[in-house]
Hints:
Elements: H1 15-54, H2 61-93, H3 98-103, H4 116-148, H5 162-172, H6 180-211, H7 248-251, H8 255-264, H9 267-287, E1 303-304, H10 307-318, H11 323-330, H12 336-347, E2 358-359, H13 362-381, H14 386-393, H15 396-405, H16 416-428, H17 436-455, H18 461-513, H19 520-540, H20 546-559, H21 572-578, H22 580-589, H23 594-612, H24 638-643, H25 660-667, E3 674-678, E4 684-692, E5 699-702, E6 708-712, H26 714-722, E7 726-727, H27 734-750
Parallel strand pairs: 1-2
Antiparallel strand pairs: 3-4, 3-7, 4-5, 5-6
Helix pairs in contact: 1-2, 1-6, 2-5, 4-5, 4-6, 4-8, 9-27, 10-15, 11-12, 12-13, 13-15, 13-27, 16-18, 17-18, 18-19, 18-20, 19-20, 19-22, 19-23, 25-26
Amino acid sequence: MNELPPTSPGWQSTPATRDLLSALRRRTTEHLQGVLARVFARADDWLFDLAKKDGVPDGSPYLHAMRSLRTSRAPVERGFREHLDQGFEALERQARPAPARAAGAQELSLVEESELEEHLAANLTAEAVMRIHGGQLDELASRLSRLFGVAHLDAATNPVSALGLASLIRGAHKDVDVPADVRMVLFKYYERELIHDLRDLLTDLNARLAAAGYHPSAAQKPAARPAQASQPPAMQPPPMSPDGYAGAASDYGYAHAAQQAAAAAAPEDRAIYDALFQLLHAWRPGHQPGGTRTQAPGAPGQRPMAAPEMMSVLSLLQGSVPSSVSEAIRRPEASLAVLLKNELLQSASRIGLPPEKVSISQDDEDAVDLVGMLFDVMFDERDFEEGSRTLISRLVVPFVKAAVMDRRLFLYKTHPARRLLNSLAEACEGNRGEGPQERELLQKAESTVDRLIAEFNEDIAIFETLEQELRAFLDQHRRRVELAERRAAEAQRGQERLEQARDLAAKELEQRTRGLKPTPAMEEFLGRSWTHHLSMIALREGPESASWQSALGLADRLLELVPREGVATKPITASMQALREPIETVLASSGITGDAASDLMRAMADSLELMALGLTPPPVAVPTLENVVPMPERRASSVAAELKPRLEVVGGTDSLSVSDDDVELMRALKVGTWIHIAGEDGKHHPVKLSWVSPISARLMFVNRRGVRVLVASVEELAAMKQEGNLLVREQENVFDQVLHRVMGKLKTDLG
């Protein structure tokens, strides 16, 4: 509001004006209390349904949130009344209300980071309400300014403005003890209720003011709003708004709200947004194919399609995958944006517009170009199976439509369309439908896209609804995946413990046989059965146990029987007989019993006797029982060999040097980090660091199903990165990653 003293002479405080203001306040309060009641009922039903799906009714966080919301209803109702009263009292005093001021877009710098999401949600609600009811809201603001004798009412001052209503909602729910995501859902319910139910209130308030003689002056008369769907589309090019927005942004009532929203965006997001459009506008003159007609000065006989016309064409194309999209998928070198713009122009004939007489406005072209580039990058770089690529391709037209309506799609990370694309990519990327859970997830993604195609008209809220439903499904799926990850980690831990035990047993054997030449029969016994027995003791009891020492003692006593320089140091037959019982115990642990055990012990004794006579013992027959556990070769790690990445050494060297920086980068990876490794198809597939071994410090990576796909050391990972077989990308969601890749491509093209 313009600066006026608290007792402005414009405001005539008479019984009539006070009664009028009281009636306006009472009517507004009654109406908004009804909105509040419906929102609480809808939220209660939503949380109850989620609690049932959660599978743990008593301990469900949704159930806790539902109870907290019910408890908070009375304080919220009081908060509504108090904030409304403060707003109307501030109008009467010609002063700004503190609650609205605190939540207004101009105070973003004072908003804590933890409250940024709520602040942005309030702005989105205000903008949605302004888009639908902007004409009536402008009219009401103009009449109220006449009532109070001021030139203009600022949105932050007016409690019955889009911004004032959003601030009212935010202030009333400030102390409600529910999770942040539930609070965001509440804002969406309020947005829907206000969109569908505010018209009656505004009509009534305007009628009361008109009956009292308060009419907008010519200077205050609100600008014309876009025609409703039932009205014929405008045939004149839309005017440019002060911030450079044109086309759909202005026609759909976004111009003023978009300015406020841009000012409220996080600084880093605003910087990316500005840089993106600067790059695009600098890139287009030198890269605009001649076959595409866009808005251009001096194009005789052509005009840019008005926003309603553009939306009509997009709606016609939304029902199926356009031929331009299919062609872009078949021909990776083709530009989706160029093909789509040409198809949009050709499709203008379907709504009665001669294709040769129309062009695409610059703002609409921005939307088509950016969405086309985004999906081009997604199709080129993301791991989508053929069916998933087809599914994702069905999103192109709805996203162009959303971008035409709302350029904030490229500004806010919290935009519902962005979140929905991220969730769909999470459901589809790397998902080959190999199991029932994966197929179920793909089916959910497909049904989500089907609903978007069928229900998306001009209400962005459908993206929010579908994203919430898909996110809840993904959360359930993720819990199942986490269980698979834990099982994979436990299996890997068991393998490494066995590997460690086998290595320890092999080292003990090597130390004892160094410089000796045991007979083949004794090598067979010690290298297989005894090593296995010692490994099991290490796993079950540890190397400090009496059993461990007893097993080592058996090996020592056997090796003392090996003749030195053809001379026996102890009586062989008597000594072997004394060791018969512990030898049988060791053999039994490997499944060698009965005649097989007796034959092996006899072979050991006979071979020792022959060696004492200076003769060469013959090879021993190895028992072929199925339950005999094969022992690894000495100092070899079968598990490590099995899981070691296949690295090819080139250049005639026998080793591959790796960068210390790459090694440190791999060592710094945190559990939960996603990287991309090259597959046999030449593409890089996403894998997640799920577990770090406390034994070997090796890192285990799983796919999106929680299945182990790689176990490697940091040095091996660094070598894979050096060879181009591993990529570490910033931990961003799909939309952000792709958006940055688009900006990179634009910069590269511009040199």
